[in-house]
Design a protein that fits this description.
Length: 105
């Protein structure tokens, strides 16, 4: 399925089926959370948080696509991501966009 952050797909006409979204809340292991807290003292990349956020975006995207497939969509346009901190070491990721069906030109 095609995913686009733009509102138009060159050479395609489509009808909008509706908004689709997918979300997840992810956290890191308490040990990793403690280690990341200590790492902030010296600076540097917090790799376990990066992994958590990458996994969360992937899962949220897949859930969004599942919703689009349920509508028989051909693509999702205007895709956006949003994140928020739920608590220390945990974050929510939401992927959302407009499910569309291609029509003959």
């Amino acid at each position: 399925m095609l995913i686009a952050t733009t509102d138009e797909i060159p050479g395609k006409k489509y009808e909008v089926l509706g908004i689709v979204e997918g979300s997840t809340v992810q956290s890191v292991h308490i040990g990793k959370d403690i280690m990341n807290s200590l790492k902030t003292l010296v600076g540097g990349e917090l790799t376990s948080y990066n992994e958590m956020m990458n996994n969360a975006r992937k899962l949220a995207t897949e859930r969004m696509l599942e919703n689009a497939r349920a509508l028989n969509a051909d693509a999702v346009v205007c895709v956006r991501y949003s994140s928020s901190s739920i608590m220390q070491g945990a974050a929510e990721i939401i992927a959302y966009g407009s499910a569309v069906k291609f029509v003959s030109q």
